[in-house]
TrEMBL record:
InterPro entries: ABC_transporter_permease (IPR051393), MetI-like_sf (IPR035906)
Organism: marine sediment metagenome
The protein, known as: ABC transmembrane type-1 domain-containing protein
UniProt-annotated location(s): Cell membrane
Nucleotidyltransferase among keywords: no
Amino acid sequence: INPVHLRRFGYPEVERLAPKGWAKIFEIAIANSRPEPYGRNSNLAYKLMTFPLKRAEQMSLAGELPTDYEKRVDVLQELLRAGTRRANEEMMGIITPGQRRKRDVTAIVVLAAIAVTFGLIFRKVFKLFTPPAAEGFEQAKWQFRRYAWAYLLLVPAAATILIWKYVPLARGSIMAFQDYRLLRETSWVWVENFGDLLWDNFWWRSVWNALRYSFLVISMTFLPPIVLAILLQEVPRGRLLFRTVFYLPAVTTGLVTIILWKQFYEPNEYGVLNTLVLKIPAIAFLALGVVLLLIALAFVRRMLYHGMRLAAWLFALAGAAMLITCAGLAKPILLPTGSVTAERLVQSWPAGVFVAAVAAAIWAVTVPVRRLWRRGRTTAAGMLAIAAAAGLAGLAAGLLSDLPGATTSAWRALAEMAPRLLQR
């Protein structure tokens, strides 16, 4: 986006994110550049211009281009003229009236043949599914009055199929006879689209590729199982052995999959997943948690910059959750069950509470109360109350316990955990 428009419509904070010199680049581009002509089928321009170049390259690699300069120029000019005729026909739609008449007649004949063929096929299908009339009995009709509730129950399903299947099909069939424009006026061209399609070499090439692919799929995936089934049924000797060998892969696949998944999640040190996890040291889990927390805080900063406070809080909570999860993976390594380190950490909780409370109180006091007051007196009063409560709780915990002894236990626990950071 042009930074000038961002400044004009009141987005200066977004304008600062634009690269340096971006506005100057826009000025130079607008002053000196010319837009490409855009019109009907203009998206084919570069594709059509590529064909003469590719043909010339192929002729050069195959040694088909003459060595004489004049003859080489004549050949290349003929390639360009052929490309121009093709572009005029496919991109611009420029053909002679005789060619247009020939295409329209061909399209009418082909559409009529398709309609007659489908009519005969549907007639045959209806005859196959219509029960024969019994002698002496009148054939039942729709009987709307008798089966009114049944027809009523079918209305939602029939309406859904009609709306989502047949209405788009009918609308697309109508568009096939139009020069459809999304924003401008649509005009009727009748069978011109079908005539152009029947005389398009790319379409016939696609039909040929589709037929080849269908033949290969049928011959390689459909016929071999049928032939093999017949052979297994008609084999004179060893029928049980051949059938067992044939069906064994289908039976053992599920069993092998179950065994693999069981080995992957085996709840011991021999499991594949546990083998990988047990080779990671404790410090790696903690480092991963810190990195994820820092990434989340970077998103928090960006969300706050754009005024998205709810998203910022969600990112902060997600970062804290990821840090706690990673620390939980390192906990069995750092604090084994029944270790002295865990007991010392339990003994040192008053010191931790006291330090956290003092830090919270200092943070709340150092935050400008004026800024909180602008957001609301309730917010400022609540923050001061939380800070005071946290400070008093921490002070009480420190006074009611042996704070020096708890601090000593905390330092001893940290010293014991330090060598375990590199353990696996």
